[in-house]
Write a structure and sequence with these properties.
- The chain is an alpha/beta fold.
- It folds into 2 domains: 190 residues, Bordetella uptake gene, domain 1 (D-Maltodextrin-Binding Protein, domain 2, 3-Layer(aba) Sandwich); 99 residues, D-Maltodextrin-Binding Protein, domain 2 (3-Layer(aba) Sandwich), CATH 3.40.190.10.
- 42% of the residues lie in helices and 19% in strands.
- The longest helix has 22 residues.
Length: 323
């Protein structure tokens, strides 16, 4: 009898928690450095979520390192109450292969709340490069074999994955220069300390428009219409057949978060992703808000599992790891 009473009390408490949610500040953990493209989108999302969550305070917390696994592990181990969420990109699918001794399971230690956006990548170069378009760039790379520096935001980052595929597609080895985040990598690219970088449009569009870097191509199968990027060719159109890299992003909660709380967050997410200001900000950065179907938790999880299967052989063949 006591056990039945305890169970009923627990269920009542969960129901009360869901009814009152949110009653305090919500933290969205971003497993990458502040100022980077994922961080920028997360902050736009945090702002858009406030209204559908009844005006609740939504804070972004950056917990960078180890290919995005430090921040992810922080959320996996957090209280399953809906007040600590994870905003992560394609690395959710690459961490299982990239990170040695990963402390959690992507497939089973999170509740999937819905996808947010797709972000194309851009191949960019330092402003002082003698090459001013993609054809000239390929020629310059060929003339400088073994001397070209390719920066990224760290092992396992979106820029690292894109750069890895670019080298494989060209069948050219470059000197890879990992940084602790996109911001310092971009600073060195603008300053001429590195030659090239492949990064998300959310971070490159403004720099290309300001002519602080040279834009050479986009990674999508079709050209982009964003003002700063619309004149750039796709890598497929200039000879790299099948080159199509889009960095998707999604929202997660710790495993065991009450279903009613998850439903509230998903409902708020769907409203936030339809917010005209949020959509406009993403479009201005070259990002595309996902369809309503992809906002569904079940579709989100199905997609991530498929991406794990897609990226695992690529990463293992390259033999790279994020410790």
């Amino acid at each position: 009898m006591k056990r039945i009473v305890a169970v009923l009390a627990g269920l009542f408490a969960l129901g009360a928690q869901a009814d009152n949610y949110p009653s305090k500040q919500i933290t969205i953990v971003v497993p990458f450095a502040a100022g980077g493209p994922t961080d920028r989108t997360a902050r736009d999302l945090a702002e858009a979520l406030r209204k559908p969550l009844g005006g609740a305070s939504v804070l972004v917390d950056n917990a960078a390192g180890a290919g995005g696994s430090i921040g992810a592990n922080k959320v996996a181990k957090a209280a399953a109450d809906g007040y600590t969420l994870l905003f992560h990109h394609i690395s959710m699918a690459t961490m299982p292969s990239l990170v040695r001794n990963i402390a959690f399971k992507v497939e089973s230690d999170f509740e999937y709340l819905g996808m947010v956006s797709d972000v194309p990548m851009t191949l960019i170069g330092r402003p002082s490069l003698p090459a001013k378009n993609y054809k000239e760039l390929v020629g310059w790379i060929g003339q400088n074999k073994g001397k070209v520096n390719l920066g990224n935001a760290g092992v396992g980052s979106a820029s690292h994955l894109c750069g890895l595929l670019f080298q494989n597609a060209l069948q050219v080895d470059m000197t890879t220069v990992p940084y602790k985040g996109t911001a310092p990598a971009m600073t060195d690219l603008i300053g001429g300390q590195i030659d090239l970088m492949c990064d998300q449009t959310t971070n490159t569009s403004s720099h290309i428009e300001a002519k602080k870097v040279i834009g050479f191509a986009v990674t999508t199968s079709k050209p982009l219409t964003t003002l700063a990027l619309r004149d750039l060719p796709t890598l497929q159109s200039v000879g790299l057949k099948g080159f199509d890299v889009t960095i998707w992003q999604g929202l997660y909660a710790p495993k065991g978060t009450p279903p009613d709380v998850l439903a509230k967050i998903n409902s708020a997410l769907k409203q936030a992703l339809k917010d005209p200001d949020f959509v406009k900000k993403q479009e201005g950065l070259g990002a595309v808000v996902v369809s309503e179907q992809r906002m569904e938790p079940s579709e989100h999880k199905r997609f991530v599992l498929a991406e794990i299967a897609k990226w695992s052989p690529v990463i293992k063949a390259a033999g790279v790891y994020a410790d």
